[in-house]
Amino acid sequence: MSPELGEQAWRESGLGAPTDIEELQRTITRLEQRDVELTEALDESQADLAAAREANRELPRILNQRREQPDPGRARPQ
Q: Is the pTM of this model over 0.85?
């Protein structure tokens, strides 16, 4: 009887383990999975952003190079 009273007192004090450890484990698992999903989504978004930034740097360079090259179809004034 003494061990049961001690366990009950321990639980009621709030110092003991929660009564539904399985539910907490499921919640932890769900949150860990969500963390993985959000991390993957963030990584993908950062990769997309890096690609867009690179394209934004390259586009003006390409356009400037085209302007600097003479147009073979157009005659040069003499």
A: no
